[in-house]
Amino acid sequence: MQALMQLGKNGITENFMNTLKTSFKTHETLKLVVLKSAGHDKEKVKEISEKLLAELGNKYTCKIVGFTLFFRRWRRAMR
Maximum CA pair distance of the chain? Predict the structure, then answer.
């Protein structure tokens, strides 16, 4: 089962990061939809994914499909 979150006009805030990290305690995968208000640009979505991965750490990977980001938590750190 995967969790579903949306990123809106407020962008990546401290509260958003806390919610993201908390959802990974119960889910292994997370689907994050980037809304139009957050910026519907392919480069912007890539920047968002890189920023989130940097804050989450090296146990996470991300796959971008359109304006949707799929995050996965691994048991061991990725090299």
Answer: 35
pLDDT at residue number 64: 96
Q: For 57, how many CA atoms within 13 A lie in the half-sphere containing its CB?
A: 9
pTM of the model: 0.86
Domains of the chain: 2-73 (3.30.110.60)
**Token pair for 70:** 């799929």
Report which residue type is found at 46.
Answer: K
Q: What is the rounded distance in angstroms from the CA atom of residue 71 to the CA atom of residue 79?
A: 17
